């Protein structure tokens, strides 16, 4: 298998870390992006290299276009052109809409949507020129169904769908693809910190009766990043245990 160069934003923990490590298992070069958790990024990079890949720690706040461009320059110096970009960076600031401040609205949309725009714009030419360019955006079940107290998060995640489908059309003449993964409730810190009775309710409402794992999402991303997915583009892949059935 030919090593690819992959950038995973927000990969110091959770789903991003699992994706980066999975790419490492395939022997890829992985740029481990983080905003503030250098220690977490170092753990991810160590896991990538232990799995058989090469890792580069790349700090950048994805809401800052100049920082993302500097990250791009660093990745190009170390690994060359990028084949796979995973827009995974995200945050939540949950509050009822009637109590939500403009700052809380902007902050969440900036990370998810401006962050995806900045990273994709930085690496677009690489993806278009790659023989197997892959843009993969990480959205959420919340983008489809909404959720109480998450108007900002739901809007941001829904925006990823339109962004993905448009980029799929624009990348298609180059032979590259863009797809989106919409996880359900995954056993990351964001979910694990919820009160136990809420987690019990989530499990009860999920036909498979459990939370998903970051590794399960990483497997889907690894497939979409591979040549096995070459005729799939513009799709939103649900991975939610059947919760929206």
TrEMBL record:
Residues making up the signal peptide according to the UniProt record: none
- InterPro entries, alphabetized: KR_dom, NAD(P)-bd_dom_sf, Sc_DH/Rdtase_CS, SDR, SDR_fam
What the entry lists under PROSITE patterns is as follows: ADH_SHORT
- Which residue ranges does the record assign to the Ketoreductase domain? 4-184
Record-linked NCBIfam families: PRK07231.1, PRK12826.1-2
Extract the Pfam families matched here.
Answer: adh_short_C2
Q: Which family does it belong to?
A: Belongs to the short-chain dehydrogenases/reductases (SDR) family.
List the PANTHER family hit by this protein, alphabetically.
3-OXOACYL-(ACYL-CARRIER-PROTEIN) REDUCTASE, 3-OXOACYL-[ACYL-CARRIER-PROTEIN] REDUCTASE FABG
Q: Which UniProt keywords apply?
A: Oxidoreductase
Single GO biological process annotation from the record = monocarboxylic acid metabolic process
Name of the protein described by the UniProt record: Short-chain alcohol dehydrogenase
A single GO molecular function term of this UniProt record: oxidoreductase activity
The keyword Phosphoprotein is assigned to this record: no
């Amino acid at each position: 298998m030919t090593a690819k160069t992959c950038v995973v934003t927000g990969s110091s923990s959770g789903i991003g870390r699992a994706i980066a490590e999975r790419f490492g298992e395939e022997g890829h070069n992985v740029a481990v992006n983080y905003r503030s958790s250098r220690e977490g990024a170092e753990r991810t990079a160590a896991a990538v290299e232990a799995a058989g890949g090469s890792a580069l720690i790349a700090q950048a706040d994805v809401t800052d276009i100049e920082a993302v461009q500097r990250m791009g320059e660093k990745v190009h110096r170390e690994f060359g052109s990028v084949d796979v970009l995973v827009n995974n960076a995200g945050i939540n600031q949950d509050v009822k809409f009637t109590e939500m401040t403009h700052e809380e609205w902007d902050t969440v949309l900036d990370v998810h949507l401006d962050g995806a725009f900045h990273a994709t714009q930085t690496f677009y030419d690489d993806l278009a020129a790659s023989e197997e360019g892959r843009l993969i955006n990480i959205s959420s079940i919340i983008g489809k169904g909404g959720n109480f107290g998450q108007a900002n998060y739901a809007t941001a995640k829904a925006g990823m769908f339109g962004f993905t489908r448009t980029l799929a059309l624009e990348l298609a003449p180059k032979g590259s693809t863009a797809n989106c993964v919409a996880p359900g409730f995954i056993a990351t810190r964001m979910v694990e910190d919820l009160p136990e009775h809420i987690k019990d309710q989530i499990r009860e409402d999920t036909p498979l009766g459990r939370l998903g794992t970051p590794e399960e999402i990483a497997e889907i991303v690894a497939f979409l990043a591979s040549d096995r997915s070459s005729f799939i583009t513009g799709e939103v892949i649900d991975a939610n245990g059947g919760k929206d059935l």
